[in-house]
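Q: What would this chain look like folded?
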Amino acid sequence: MNTILTENNKIYLRKLNLNDNLDNYLSWINDKDSTVYLTKKKKQTVNDLKNYIKYHLKSNNYLCGIFKKSNNIHVGNVLLSRIDNTNKNCDIGIFIGKDSWGEGIGTSAVVLLSDYAFDVLKMHKVIAGVVKENVGSSKLFEKAGFKLEGIKKEEFKMENKFLDHLHYGKIKK
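A: My prediction, written as structure tokens:
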């Protein structure tokens, strides 16, 4: 169950499972700064995280933990979802604990899982969405080779304000 899906010299990705230590994950998911652009705002419990993992394990999604090779510490998650085998596309999302922001880990994880989607799952396109104000995520996806394809006006509501949603895509070379 701890099979590595893909890796580089800094990190490896593997599907999260119910036996994982979720302490780090719980601390990021309940951190106000880390979750500014997430839709779920309620305080999460270990049981909530286990239910989330269970849901993804039963689906055809890939909820992968991002682990540093140097110490095997879980520093974030990257998710492939809405896998459409007919149209050969899927969505990707990323969540990194703020202790690891600015290290290039998120970009590496998105590149690794996108390549996995192209090479193993035989996808043609990987799609990402980012709230316009989330400049860090926009830069991450652009560094990972995603191109801005459009803007969905006022599609994300945050604190009684509607924000634009940027639509990114990456097509298999």
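The radius of gyration is 16 Å.
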